[in-house]
Amino acid sequence: xxxxxxxxxxxxxxxxxxxxxxxxxxxxxxxxxxxxxxxxxxxxxxxxxxxxxxxxxxxxxxxxxxxxxxxxxxxxxxxxxxxxxxxxxxxxxxxxxx
Length: 98
Fold this sequence. Notes:
Layout: H1 2-5, H2 12-21, H3 33-40, E1 64-73, E2 76-85, E3 91-97
């Protein structure tokens, strides 16, 4: 930063040589590798909205909705999965599993 104030142009390699000569270390904030792994997983990706929030329709079984709910029983988790018809509002299928 001091060199920039003097309007002197120095190559990056020369700057590194000077820093190594006088044992000057710069703290560099490194990227978190776990964040990159988290972004790469499929579960964090969003899917294109095909319905475009048009939940009204005429024929049943054209637009279906699904959800998975996690329920904790004493010491273990149980999963409830349902499929619902958006147009009629009725639940078509449900499954409970551990």
